[in-house]
Amino acid sequence: MRLTKLFAVALFATSFAHSALGGGESRKDEPLSQKDAREVATKAFLEATKGSIPKYSVKSIDDAGDKDAWRFRFQGSEQYARPGAHAIVKVDKRTAKTEVLLGE
């Protein structure tokens, strides 16, 4: 009898935890916000340039045709405003994966 109660409690707890965690189904999370994507893009830009452009401006590039990614343009400023001191960073809205296209 005691073993049956213990089993019932364990089964209930497992069932509750499974449903509370989404039932094991893949969740469709909210897309990455533009603010969060900008932070991810900045980190990717600094890693890609190895810090060689410490002063820069960032602008969002609106691309109505691309609903899956945010795009940002980084441009060197002050003494770093020189040819090639720019990059485009694309951030996937679902995965936060980045692609960096450095200026030449």
Describe the structure.
The chain is an alpha+beta fold. Helix content is 33%, strand content 25%. It contains 2 helices and 4 strands. It has helices spanning 2-20, 34-48, and strands spanning 56-61, 69-76, 86-92, 98-102. A 4-stranded antiparallel sheet has the order 1-2-3-4, with helices on one face. A hairpin with a 7-residue loop joins strand 1 and strand 2. The radius of gyration is 23 Å and the shape is elongated. The termini are far apart. The model is unreliable at 3-27 (pLDDT under 50).
Topology:
Elements: H1 2-20, H2 34-48, E1 56-61, E2 69-76, E3 86-92, E4 98-102
Antiparallel strand pairs: 1-2, 2-3, 3-4
Question: Notable features of this structure?
Answer:
single chain, 104 residues, alpha+beta, 4-stranded antiparallel beta sheet
Brief rundown of the structure:
This protein has helices at 2-20, 34-48; strands spanning 56-61, 69-76, 86-92, 98-102. The chain has 104 residues and is α+β, with helices and mostly antiparallel strands.
Q: In sequence order, what are the helices and strands, one letter per element?
A: HHEEEE
Shape: elongated
Low-pLDDT ranges = 3-27
Question: What gyration radius follows from the Cα positions, in whole Å?
Answer: 23 Å
Most strands sheet = 4 strands, antiparallel
**Average predicted local confidence, pLDDT:** 79
Strand percentage lies at 25-35%
Number of strands: 4
SS field, number of helical segments = 2
State the end-to-end distance.
76 Å
Spatial strand sequence of the major β-sheet: 1-2-3-4
- Secondary structure category: alpha+beta
Helix content: 25-40%
